[in-house]
């Protein structure tokens, strides 16, 4: 059996902290599920994991959403945060900490960090003149606008001309480029790194870091008539949640992975490390920017009415179906399209036909057998655990899932080739041993992706769900007890 690469120690992974102006949708669920899968995988490896999620609660957009709902901002955000927590519970998100930007622990660290950046000479007062996109909370120059609209989301922008404080982002251009060169894993995946490098090479403008007209924000510590620009404070969540300046900070910092969607790569891969350089803090090890989902070929939007609610999908099909589909449907990192038809095809073709039937068949045969499941390993060479782990380490989640599926296919083939229904005695015991041990190992491997299904499988096999070190053939000690099907076939009405 091939050994999994040893990497004992800690693993700190974060998702973006989502804006609380609206309900969580399938896009938010996607990043959070992917991070959950990685967190669970690293726990299976025996590492000490910190999985951080949270919410971004300040800024103009949220202030406006609260006003529309006829609520004061704090009351409004508390309500939406509750919805995010409910969705994460339903989707089986095993986060260790949920951090909010309205918490004192965050506000204090933000102010201290800004003071530190100022002490290092990287903040100055000037005048900002340009454009601001409220939905994206982003500043743009004339040249950057596309047809007079926000180049990122295509929506209307506001003209802004005000006295403001700036962060000397331009000072960090060379340092950033050197850092990317020395740490080729930092900008991930590869398909997105060049875009960032080119933009940084093209020159960096200093960043406006205050808003004057806004009330709903953290007071700017150097001049209380301003509040902090929301991105300049939101990024700080990744260190405020760890208690920057406390003695425990180094236990998890630097972060191993900031997992984000591609549209906010710039903030994480450029602005954030520059802020950290300025404050003398080590940058994270990796920023991974995954792709975007469209729905039925179109951008997901309220006005089109095609926003996919993850709770509805989980209730209709199951949480594990949603988790599996999102990771399996598009190669992790790339863009892709969500359709219910594709989801049903994957349920019927893969979850029911490959996995569900395998477990059901194995347990039916095993239950009828009254001897001991003893035998000699004939199948473990079909399992490439090292490859699965390498894919997981490189965040190739879809490829890892496919490699697990290769083993599932191999076990199905082993059953077909050996026709255990025609066997008796020792020969039958041997085949049953092989397929039961395989299913036990499969239950561990699918756990990060489909935790409930993994637990149900282990329960039916009568074994305790193991960790990665248990993914080797040994004695089968389970007391099998067949339950229902793991997945139900979906009939498609025309
Ligand atoms: N508040 C900022 C993040 C601050 S992090 C310090 C923000 N919030 S957001 O609510 O707009 O969430 C954006 C993130 O949601 C994306 O980066 C991505 O992780 C996820 N997605 C939102 N829509 C998505 C798709 N249609 N497809 C894939 N992921 C998407 O930006």
The fraction of residues assigned to DSSP E strands is: 5-15%
Bound molecules: 5'-O-[(L-methionyl)-sulphamoyl]adenosine
Total domain modules: 2
In DSSP terms, counting alpha (H) and pi (I) runs of 4 or more, how many helices? 17
Identify the CATH homologous superfamily of the largest domain: HUPs
Average pLDDT confidence is: 95
**Uncertain stretches:** 1-7
Number of DSSP strand runs:
16
Helix content: 40-55%
Helix/strand structural class: alpha/beta
Radius of gyration: 25 Å
CATH architecture descriptor text of the largest domain: 3-Layer(aba) Sandwich
Largest sheet geometry: 7 strands, parallel
The rounded distance between the terminal residues' Cα atoms is 48 Å
Shape: elongated
Keywords:
single chain; 494 residues; alpha/beta; Rossmann fold; Isoleucyl-tRNA Synthetase, Domain 1; 2 domains; seven-stranded parallel beta sheet; four-stranded antiparallel beta sheet; 17 helices; 14% strand; disordered N terminus; binds 5'-O-[(L-methionyl)-sulphamoyl]adenosine
What is the topology?
Elements lengths: L9 E5 L3 E2 L6 H19 L3 E9 L3 H9 L4 H18 L6 E4 L3 H16 L3 E11 L4 E3 L17 E10 L5 H10 L4 E2 L1 H12 L5 E2 L1 E2 L15 E2 L1 H5 L2 H4 L8 H4 L4 E5 L3 H15 L7 E4 L2 E3 L2 E2 L10 H7 L2 H11 L6 E3 L1 H29 L16 H9 L3 H22 L6 H22 L4 H11 L33
Parallel strand pairs: 1-3, 1-12, 2-3, 3-4, 8-13, 12-13, 14-16
Antiparallel strand pairs: 5-6, 5-7, 7-9, 10-11, 14-15
Helix pairs in contact: 2-3, 11-12, 12-13, 13-16, 14-15, 15-16, 16-17
This protein binds 5'-O-[(L-methionyl)-sulphamoyl]adenosine.
């Amino acid at each position: 059996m091939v050994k999994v690469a040893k990497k004992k120690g800690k693993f700190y992974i974060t998702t973006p902290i989502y804006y609380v102006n609206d309900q969580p949708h399938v896009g938010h669920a996607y990043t959070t599920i992917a991070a959950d899968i990685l967190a669970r995988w690293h726990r299976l490896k025996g590492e000490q994991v910190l999985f951080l999620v949270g919410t971004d609660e300040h800024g103009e957009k949220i202030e406006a959403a609260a006003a529309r709902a006829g609520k004061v901002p704090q009351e409004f955000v508390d309500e939406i945060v509750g919805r995010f927590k409910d969705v994460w519970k339903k989707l089986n998100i095993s986060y260790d900490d949920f951090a909010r930007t309205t918490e004192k622990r965050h506000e204090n660290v933000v102010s201290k960090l800004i003071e530190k950046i100022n002490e290092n000479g990287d903040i100055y007062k000037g005048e900002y003149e340009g454009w601001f996109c409220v939905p994206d909370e982003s500043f743009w120059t004339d040249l950057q606008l596309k047809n007079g609209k926000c180049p990122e989301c295509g929506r209307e922008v506001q003209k802004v001309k005000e006295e403001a404080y700036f962060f000397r982002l331009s000072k960090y251009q060379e340092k950033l480029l050197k850092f990317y060169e020395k740490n080729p894993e930092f900008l991930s995946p590869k398909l997105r790194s060049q875009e960032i490098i080119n933009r940084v090479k093209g020159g960096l403008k200093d960043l406006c870091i205050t808003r004057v007209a806004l009330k709903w924000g953290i007071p700017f510590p150097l001049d209380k008539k301003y509040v902090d620009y929301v991105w300049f404070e939101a990024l700080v969540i990744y260190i405020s949640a760890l208690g920057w300046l406390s003695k425990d900070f180094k236990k998890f910092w630097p972060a191993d992975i900031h997992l984000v969607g591609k549209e906010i790569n710039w903030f994480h891969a450029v602005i954030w490390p520059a802020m950290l350089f300025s404050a003398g803090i080590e940058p994270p090890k990796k920023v991974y920017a995954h792709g975007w989902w469209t729905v039925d070929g179109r951008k997901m939007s309220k006005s089109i009415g095609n926003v996919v609610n993850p709770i509805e999908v989980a209730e209709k099909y199951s949480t594990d179906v949603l988790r599996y589909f999102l990771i399996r449907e598009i190669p992790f990192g790339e863009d892709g399209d969500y359709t219910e038809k594709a989801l049903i095809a994957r349920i019927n073709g893969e979850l029911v036909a490959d996995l569900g039937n395998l477990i059901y068949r194995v347990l039916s045969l095993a239950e009828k057998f009254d001897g001991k499941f003893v035998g000699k390993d004939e199948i473990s060479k079909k399992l490439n655990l090292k490859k699965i782990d390498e894919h997981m380490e490189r965040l190739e989640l879809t490829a890892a899932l496919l490699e697990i599926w290769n083993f599932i296919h191999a076990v199905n083939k082993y059953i077909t080739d050996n026709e255990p229904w025609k066997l008796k005695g020792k020969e039958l015991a041997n085949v049953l041993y092989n397929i039961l041990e395989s299913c036990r190992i499969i239950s561990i491997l699918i756990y990060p992706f489909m935790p409930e299904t993994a637990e149900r499988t282990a329960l039916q096999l009568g074994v305790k769900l193991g960790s990665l070190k248990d993914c080797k053939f040994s004695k089968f000690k389970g007391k099998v007890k067949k339950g229902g099907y793991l997945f139900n076939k979906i009939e498609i009405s025309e």
